Amino acid sequence: MTPRTPHALAAPSLAAPFTLGGLTLRNRLVATAHATAAVTDGAPTETDAAYWRRLAEGGAGMVITGGTAVAPESTLPQRYLTEAWRPEIKDAVRRRAEAITDGGAVAVAQLVHLGRETLGAGTFYAPVSAAAVRSPREATTPHPLSTEEVRGVVDAFRISAANSVQAGFHGVELHAGHGYLLAQFLSRVNNTRDDEYGDRIALPAQVIGAIRTEIGQLPIGLRVSVEPGEESGLGLDDLIELLPRLCAAAPVAYVNVTTGVRNTYVPGMATTRPPLLESVARIRSAVAVPLLVSQGFRSVADIERALDSGADLVGMARPFMADPDFARKVIAGDERSVRPCTGCNEGCRTFEPTGSCSVNPELGPPGAAARPAVPLLLTRRGARGGPVAVLGAGPAGMECAMALARSGAEVTLFDTARRSGGQACLASLAPHRSGWQKFVDYQRDQLADLGVRVRLGTSPAPDDLAAYAQIVLATGAAEASVHVPGELRTLTSTDFLSRYPDVVPEASGVAVLDDGFGWWQGISAVESALAAGAREVTVITPGTGFATGLSPENRTQLMNRLTGAPLRVVAMSTVTSTTTDGVRLRHVLDGQETHLAADVLVTVGERRPRRPDFAPAAHQTVRAIGDCVVPRRVAHAVAEGRAAAEAVAARPL
């Protein structure tokens, strides 16, 4: 095949239909492979089917389901990956496929063999690979597959693809990216074989051929990823070389190109633009089949630029988790109403027990119609209707006011601050945390569109609230000061984040006393100090390490950002006092004391609930939500805000 020339035709609209392997996609937007782990003993559950149905109904042209393994040695002990090789789970898989097709989308099942990558969870089996080359993400070298064992892998993919199509999927996608087994064979570094599979395209070509014998001309897609670092052996240049050969040897219906390996392929907030956007034209020149470009796409402008550069389809995963109506809204020209993915990598990457989304309160665990949330009922005085007052314009209060307005209630939102956003707005001041501001902007815009009366810089007195029978407190939390005796300038992390561009030039040696929980307050203080030009930053923590509270993805990407930075970590220590030129440290185990030079100390203190001191009138019902109940995460604030609105709308008590 001759690669297509980009720009030969006018760029398609994201709403334009597209023909793929004889199937018609209703638009160019693809929900790329992901999973919520709503799987029991390797079989998708009813909760899983409900998730995919809701997503498909939101308008995506094609939906690719992930987390589907092809062999027992590629599963995890928890068995929350779909076990595609087992014919006895076909009915459960059929419910998943029907949910997607009933929603109007083309349904594709992505098939994967993890190879040497255990996802950090361990397996019941020995990890395997193309050769005895250890993954930098694993502690041990994998078992190199024999020639006969590789042929067994081919058969595993064939059987799994046949089962998936027989269960109702329109086609399959082979996962040859993110450092998993097929990618290990494609890599010039990992594939050091001297048999027939030493040709890097041999295994994926054989897999494609074997699947073709089972599913005929139904679409087979291929997902590949640009892997970072010279040690990967599968950078962009490698893919540009391999893809034409592979597509000529074993034609596929489309190629899906993304980036990264485990712990980097789900980019955090620091990634603000699609990593492959500047490379689309080059990839297009090497690929003669339809091109799907994925990762980091969240805006219409970036999607249209990718299509203009030669992509046929554009893929996203987390934006569909944040707002399953993403496709419908942007096609209708209503991007403003899209609930944005922040890139926080919290709920979607925990699987406790299933994946969720910090900003989407409708995505709940198995058996729940939404994320469980119970506002704190402080008083139950009256039940008459009328306007509602929400005190606090952070994520909890704004979510509550939005939901109340949509229910038809008259609502007024108060906040003593002069700008909305609360703790989310504060968090967004740190480098690489701007995703929270995107969510604040979305909530603020929705309040304006819904006609909610917002009174900022106002502390309502009891007389101001007398007209409201229903009051919702969403007044957040405040960081407590950590008492450290001495003479050095000391700031809370809240104060420091608000002022670091002015503080650091005058105090370039920054010590950060973390609370030992390794969460974003201390990390943001570190990154803010470095961004402002600190000559040295030292983290002092009574805990065992730095950033220990983050998910593996967020921690790995953070450490990649900090490589080469003037950062020291002093673990299992605390600050006992300060001097004019530094801090005195004490080791929490042996009590040994040392001195550390610093110009300013930043302390991470406990966040404590903050509630207004007022006595409700006899006719007023008062509820509390979010951090003013107990300081937690954005996910709790948003869910309780929505739940409080529903409780108010469901009067009487």
From TrEMBL:
Required cofactor(s): FMN; [4Fe-4S] cluster
InterPro entries on file: Aldolase_TIM, FAD/NAD-bd_sf, FAD/NAD-binding_dom, NADH:flavin_oxidoreductase, OxRdtase_FMN_N
Coiled coil region boundaries: none
Domain FAD/NAD(P)-binding per the UniProt entry, residue ranges: 388-606
Pfam families: Oxidored_FMN, Pyr_redox_2
Keywords, sorted A to Z: Flavoprotein, FMN, Iron, Iron-sulfur, Metal-binding, Oxidoreductase
Sequence ranges assigned to domain NADH:flavin oxidoreductase/NADH oxidase N-terminal in this UniProt record: 14-332
SUPFAM superfamilies (UniProt xref): FAD/NAD(P)-binding domain, FMN-linked oxidoreductases
Family statement drawn from the similarity comment of this UniProt entry: In the N-terminal section; belongs to the NADH:flavin oxidoreductase/NADH oxidase family.
Protein known as: FAD-dependent oxidoreductase
Organism, as annotated: Streptomyces xiangluensis
Species lineage: Bacteria, Bacillati, Actinomycetota, Actinomycetes, Kitasatosporales
